[in-house]
Amino acid sequence: MIRVLLVSERGPALAARLDTDKRLEIFVARGIGLSPGEQLDDVEPDVILLDLGSEHGDWLRHVMTSRPPPGVLVLADDVPPALRAGWIRVGGRAVLPRRAAPTELVAAIEGVASGLIVVHVDTGSLIGSPGRRAAPALRMLTPREIEVLEMMAEGLGNKAIAARLGISPHTVKFHIASVFAKLNVESRTEAVTEGVRRGLVLI
User: Fold this and answer.
1) For the domain 137-197, what is the CATH code?
2) Which pLDDT band holds residue 137 (cuts at 50, 70, 90)?
3) Cβ of 138: how many Cβ atoms within 10 Å?
4) Averaged pLDDT, 139-163
5) Per-domain boundaries in the chain
6) pTM (two decimals)
7) Phi and psi dihedrals of 91, rounded to 5?
8) What confidence score (pLDDT) does residue 91 get?
9) What pLDDT digit, counting tens, does each position of 25-77 carry?
10) Which positions ≥6 away from 172 have C-beta within 8 Å?
11) pLDDT at 173
């Protein structure tokens, strides 16, 4: 069970969209009464879903001083420059557009709870990449290459991938080489890591 604290003016509406998923335990932050620090201590969330359409300064300050800090999933259509430069430092682990679908929110929450950094293809440019500058992978990889990448994420070898797809091992090698080139990586582990970071595969 993942404990999620929603900090948003749309808290009840977001809770209704997410509460049907039995893997999540949803809490909505209160605008009055308990301070952010008290609410963090009370809920002890694994993930904070922070909607930048609402006031967020106090919450970020308290998240920064929490030990250990919960992962922060930011919903934003425009990230302020100050946060853009230091979002990872303050616990930021995911950035999604405010219109993100419930399935995207749940996938990002699970990723954050697992210690991953999750960047939606529509919001990656808002924060800048913490490592290698990423190309828009969703527009580059073919459907077959994405299938191969997903199977690599499952830990399948070339022969197993070939058998599942009904193609030759030689063709699998060709697809893997193409994935490596397009993602600018040199190993299967790097390819899977980059695929997860770009939202191409879920693990």
Assistant:
1) 1.10.10.10
2) very low
3) 12
4) 88
5) 2-127, 137-197
6) 0.55
7) 100, 0
8) 59
9) 999 887 656 677 788 788 888 888 888 754 555 665 566 555 566 788 888 77
10) 148, 158, 161, 162, 165
11) 93
How many angstroms separate the CA atoms of 81 and 94, rounded?
16
Topology of domain 2-127, CATH: Rossmann fold (3.40.50)
Spatial separation of the C-alpha atoms in residues 95 and 98, rounded to whole Å = 9
Give 95's strand partners: 74, 119
Instruction: In whole angstroms, give the CA distance from residue 119 to residue 191.
Output: 16
Residues 126 and 76 sit within 8 Å (Cβ to Cβ) = yes
Q: What is the DSSP string of the chain?
A: -EEEEEESTTHHHHHHHHTT-TTEEEEE--SSSS-HHHHHHHH--SEEEEETTS--HHHHHHHHHSSSPPEEEEE-SS--HHHHHHTTTTTEEEEE-TT--HHHHHHHHHHHHTT--EE-TTTHHHH--SSSPPP-GGGTS-HHHHHHHHHHHTT--HHHHHHHHTS-HHHHHHHHHHHHHHHT-SSHHHHHHHHHHTTS---
- The residue type of 145 is E
